[in-house]
Amino acid sequence: MDMCIAYFDEAGDDGVTTASSEFFVLTSLYMNADRWQENFDKIRSCRQRLKEQFGFHSAEELHTKHLLSDKDPYRKYGWTSEQKQEIVKEVARCIADLDAKIVNVIIDKTYFVDENYHVLENALKYNIQRIENDSAGKWHYMIITDKGRLAPMRRTARAVRAFNPIQSKYSSGYINQPVRYLIEDILEKDSEESYFIQVCDFVSYFVHLYYKTREKKQALPNRVGRVIDEAFIGRIMATLRKNGVLNLNASQANPYGLVVYPKPRKKNTTYEAFALSVVHLYYNPKQESCQLVDEHIF
Question: pTM for this one?
Fold first, then answer.
């Protein structure tokens, strides 16, 4: 049986206080072990191009939020807004060219009805479920995550091996479908030392921005808004989608396969209106599939 490696990172925080972010994004990037070196070489070549064009040191961690917000250690480069845009576009094109898959899970805290909702644990569970579905017994996989949240992630991964309730297709109830193809405990690695975790950071932050502007109808953070706009974010998402790197089977409610939990309790909520608008905008009856008609790739 083949073996895959999955990397994880997040955007937002998993807190539930009034000071916490409204939503939390957990992104996984997974690939067949036989494709690891090829994908690594593509990212390394991308970083070499960024060094040649913009002086961005290949060993410097790419932390997308800090780059767009002009925070250290990126302020020292003195990049213009246009240069930052070019860096981001280059990275997006590189990610779209990887022989890998990406799953994005969004936990929208505005839909909470339970103050004890476990944000990180549920986001991880839903993400693992999508990887497990994609595996379908064809390959095993192991998970490597950024430092900082290892203990709760390990507990969750161990738990779903024994108890993993899934909505039944034939009734309103649930069935227990334990995770079978995840091997070993979740391992951690400093994102500074992993190009693949930095890719997850990039994707999770742009999913965060996309959801914030498109679904929540909120303005971009001031510093970020000085560099990019909503149209730019849409084009980044379309670029990531173009070669199939996004696992669109993770969710059919939107054109990017974004998995959103918890589900809204009332009909015609903001999210349902969003989903309906997506179907209206993207559904092509002739092809019986969702496709983009208002975004252009970079």
Answer: 0.89
Residues β-bridged to residue 165:
176
Token pair, residue 79, equals: 């990049």
* 225 CB neighbour count, 10 Å cutoff: 14
Which residues in the chain land under pLDDT 50?
268-291, 293
User: Is the Cα dihedral 11, 15, 18, 19 positive or negative?
Assistant: negative
End-to-end CA distance of the chain: 37
Query: Using the 8-state DSSP alphabet, how is residue 263 labeled?
Result: P
User: In angstroms, what CA-CA distances link 101 with 28, 33, 50?
Assistant: 8, 13, 24
Report yes or no: 129 and 166 within 8 Å, Cβ to Cβ.
yes
Q: What is the DSSP string of 234-268?
A: HHHHHHHHTTT-B-GGG-SSSTT--EEESPPSSTT
In 3-state terms, what secondary structure has residue 268?
A: coil
- Name the percent of the chain lying above pLDDT 90: 80
Q: Report residue 273: phi and psi, to 5°.
A: -65, -40
Q: Which amino acid would we find at residue 246?
A: L
> What digits encode the pLDDT tens for the residues 164-177?
988 887 777 889 99
